[in-house]
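User: Sequence in, structure out. Go.
Assistant: Echoing your sequence, followed by the structure tokens.
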Amino acid sequence: MEKLYASFDEAVSDIFDGAVVMVSGFGGTGGTAQKLLLALRNHGAKDLTIVSNTAGLASLLGFGTLPGHTAIDVGTLIDNDQVIKVIASYPVSPSPSKINSFESYFRKGKMELELVPQGTLVERIRAGGAGIPAFFTPTGVGTQLSEGKETREFDGKQHILEHALKSDFALVKGYKADTLGNLTYKGTSQNFGAVMVRSTGISIVEVDQVVNIGEIDPHLVHTPALFVDRIVTL
């Protein structure tokens, strides 16, 4: 199976309206597949559900820009009216006086939010890739995050039921890939990318470089080729 794609536009060309798309990265553009997101914006798929740690901070914080472009992150898709729902841990701006695009849309009732604690978010994604449909966690018990969810007591403590997350596509930033698809990550791209590629239908990975098979030390392979469908290099 040929995994190397000639362009970012080609790699995202079949993302359809209404798709669930996971986007790796921590905050702003850190660990985010910026060129894949730019290609998805240009592609124009609508009514997307985005699963990501944040919902767009780059333009507010002013970092991580690509040459000739403004900063690219999930907020780029929101600004282009492509997103109808966000599943995230930190969707709003750190400054109450400088709101991001998501918050503006949300306040107007134009976007849905599913707020998930960060540890729960990554575990829900991991569970999706591990074939675990749901799990109990004490995180969020007694808060608004537990409203409407099943609760159960374990070892004298209340836990709430959380369901696994899966997606149609995942846009992930890697550091290096070989031509077979084995991946290594670097910096903040390590946080969500490795679990997202395991819990999606099609994983699309943007990497800094592609090397020949055998050039990545097996001990440094963070994601085996089995979980990688498409690779595009800068």
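User: And one key feature?
Assistant: The radius of gyration is 18 Å.
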